[in-house]
Amino acid sequence: MSTKLRKKQAVASSEKQMMKGSKMLIEALKQEEVEVLFGYPGGAILPTFDEIHQDGIRHILARHEQGAVHAAEGYARVSKKPGVVVVTSGPGATNVITGIADAMMDSLPLVVFSGQVATSVIGTDAFQESDVMGLTMPITKHNYQVRDVNELPRIIKEAFHIATTGRPGPVLIDLPKDVSIETGLFDYNQEVNLPGYHPTIMPNKLQIRKLVEAVSSAKKPIILAGAGVLHAGASEQLLEYAEQQQIPIASTLLGLGAFPGDHELFLGMAGMHGTYPANMAIYESDLLISIGSRFDDRVTGNLEKFAPNAKIAHIDIDPAEIGKNVETQIPIVADAMEALKELINQNGVKGQNSLWNEELKHLKQEYPLWYKEDPEVIKPQQLIERIYEKTNGEAIVTTDVGQHQMWTAQFFKFKKPNRFVTSGGLGTMGFGFPAAIGAQLAEPKTPVIAFMGDAGFQMTLQELSLVQEMKLPIKLVIVNNSSLGMVRQWQQLFFEERYSNSLVPVQPDFVKLAEAYDIKGFRVDHVAHLDGAIEEMLAHDGPALIDFRVADKENVYPMVAPGKGLHEMIGVKPE
Amino acid sequence: MKRIITATVNNSSGVLNRVTGMLARRNYNIESITVGHTENPAISRMTFVVVVDNQRSIEQVIKQLNKQIDVLKVSDITDESIMSRELVLIKVFSCPQQRAEIAAVINPFRATIIDVGKESVTVQVTGDQQKVEALIDLLHPYGIKELARTGITAVKRGHKVTNAEERVVLIN
Ligand SMILES: Cc1ncc(C[n+]2csc(CCOP(=O)(O)OP(=O)(O)O)c2C)c(N)n1
């Protein structure tokens, strides 16, 4: 049934009716045009699952609640709609903690329903009781415990509103079992009324004018684009503005795709494993315009040495991000789209930065990302670069966390927004695979490729069941270096090669593992077979898991070592 | 530096937890917090005394407080013309012979003795921080057995004050 139709039916049946809490929940989800839920049943949430069954609303049964919440995150990142999660109390709720924290860090809109023990026994250490409100308070944008069934519609409406507006984020609703069974009045037509919550969308004109003037007098301007541009859907405006003013662009990890990766003004990713041109440009700039990025320490390196000569302008929808890490001269609280539109309208006098742009162009030519090929062994960078080429960069790409994640950020040039799904702020291993499931559900027709380390994949591989069940044509690329690669790299560089617990002597046979789930699996361990294998993988019209054996001691370069400034990169050129 | 921040918040369950949890997790140094209903029972008012290094930190405290959905309004009233008060109960060692002396010491502070025991008296004093601390200093030599402070609560004045009025504030 189309969502439009669903909504109509829901509206028709929602005219202030008496109904059970669990039914209210489903009705509210229909009003919010939710297409799919991710979750796992259990005692306290059974009434809701009974309603799910009776209604027929689509529910994806993950094999672990962590899988459900990461899938919801992947869905949210790609579809730009809220991901909805339904889990039981106690262990069900604690199993989604990692994903909620991840969504909080990366500003992903989630609405999470957790069952709870009955209100009469809350606080008595009842079976499967846990203080989910207390546990999730610091990792949600807001959370609710429903104490009265009549408040449920208002709470759900507020939850969706809070999760999806302003700076998006996860909202949790703790639903005691008795409340979901009780009957109350369902009225979903009330206006949301939250006097303490009014995100600022429109930029202050005076501040915009200040920025326009700053740009006009800048000789070395640079834009740092973050995920805020993607959340605002402002990629086109960013492109237009950058071209209008001829300002070079660097991106954060989560901002990749906000600006075309193959554009001549694009310098690449900034930060710890960013490109040398992007980092040097930030270091030397006289005007740094951050748009929807939060100056994370992985981006700034040592703050004392960060952009020492730059005037800082910061456009962010969350005022608390402005001035948090970096002192800001031109603060602009606004939605990135509105701010960019205003900047474009002002059509200010261009700065005198043609020399600077030339310099940066040379820097780009002089210091490309690099790796050394080997006649036999597949280099991980090579693997990712070849997949990029063979997909024309058109695929949706998810990653797990570690070296392969950084190599993907470096070598896969994202040209379009919302095509890159990765765990940035929390750096959650186990994210990449379930996130790919959510991404594929959001866009069933677009190819989805998940790049994963051999270690991180094993943290949530139970979701292979889900791929098998739904025959999702995801391509699972294991960048197998038989180690916790990123940990090993740090131990090599900063712990005198004492490889404590980072070399993995035993692995499952990933091919057999795939076959156990009725998924096509194969192994590639020689450069000669690389291209053929990639083609075979891409041509296969179902799910496939490929165990790519890659060089095991490769390091991610260039790199800003911890404590160093962005201009102090190591490994900028082949030794 | 010390700043006095007030916040009006929804009087919903867990709101104190939300606010104090956020302040602790963001590493802010809170000297005191007071909470109570306002004239509207659905809304509470909190008063914080926060110790910060610089102006930027206090801006962050205010922004982070504002970010909470249940927080309705936040103000830094330190530099405004305000009335701030704290209630303090001080149990002081005192033999019966010393009671008159203590009564004389506390009298200019409009403090009162609210309980008398065999070897101690309990003094109640209300005032701004300066006044309260001055009295505690004076009582120290007698030996303080127990001390309970409520923390500061404050409101803005209804009208602008002149210097002369400010002096009145100090002694009343
Ligand atoms: C849940 C979790 N535990 C631990 C870490 C720390 N960590 C970061 S990268 C990494 C190694 C990842 O190894 P692998 O998945 O094989 O990827 P590679 O770095 O080899 O590409 C570890 C352990 C983490 N990010 N997340």
Automatic annotation (TrEMBL), chain A:
GO terms for cellular component: acetolactate synthase complex. It is an enzyme of class 2 (transferase). Keywords: Amino-acid biosynthesis, Branched-chain amino acid biosynthesis, FAD, Flavoprotein, Magnesium, Metal-binding, Thiamine pyrophosphate, Transferase. Gene3D superfamilies: 3.40.50.970, TPP-binding domain (3.40.50.1220). GO terms for biological process: isoleucine biosynthetic process; L-valine biosynthetic process. GO terms for molecular function: acetolactate synthase activity; flavin adenine dinucleotide binding; magnesium ion binding; thiamine pyrophosphate binding. It holds the Pfam family TPP_enzyme_M. InterPro entries: Acetolactate_synth_lsu, AHAS_TPP, DHS-like_NAD/FAD-binding_dom, THDP-binding, Thiamin_PyroP_enz_cen_dom, Thiamin_PyroP_enz_TPP-bd_dom, TPP-bd_CS, TPP_enz. Its cofactor is Mg(2+); thiamine diphosphate. Residues 208-343 form the Thiamine pyrophosphate enzyme central domain. It catalyses: 2 pyruvate + H(+) = (2S)-2-acetolactate + CO2. Belongs to the TPP enzyme family. This is Acetolactate synthase. It comes from Anaerobacillus arseniciselenatis.
UniProtKB/TrEMBL annotation, chain B:
Dimer of large and small chains. Residues 4-79 form the ACT domain. Keywords: Amino-acid biosynthesis, Branched-chain amino acid biosynthesis, Transferase. Belongs to the acetolactate synthase small subunit family. GO terms for molecular function: acetolactate synthase activity; acetolactate synthase regulator activity. This is Acetolactate synthase small subunit. Pathway: Amino-acid biosynthesis; L-valine biosynthesis; L-valine from pyruvate: step 1/4; Amino-acid biosynthesis; L-isoleucine biosynthesis; L-isoleucine from 2-oxobutanoate: step 1/4. PANTHER family: ACETOLACTATE SYNTHASE SMALL SUBUNIT, ACETOLACTATE SYNTHASE SMALL SUBUNIT 1, CHLOROPLASTIC. SUPFAM superfamilies: ACT-like. Catalyzes the conversion of 2 pyruvate molecules into acetolactate in the first common step of the biosynthetic pathway of the branched-amino acids such as leucine, isoleucine, and valine. Its EC number is 2.2.1.6. Pfam families: ACT_AHAS_ss, ALS_ss_C. It catalyses: 2 pyruvate + H(+) = (2S)-2-acetolactate + CO2. It comes from the Bacteria. The keyword Transferase applies. The keyword Zinc does not apply. One of its GO terms (biological process) is isoleucine biosynthetic process.
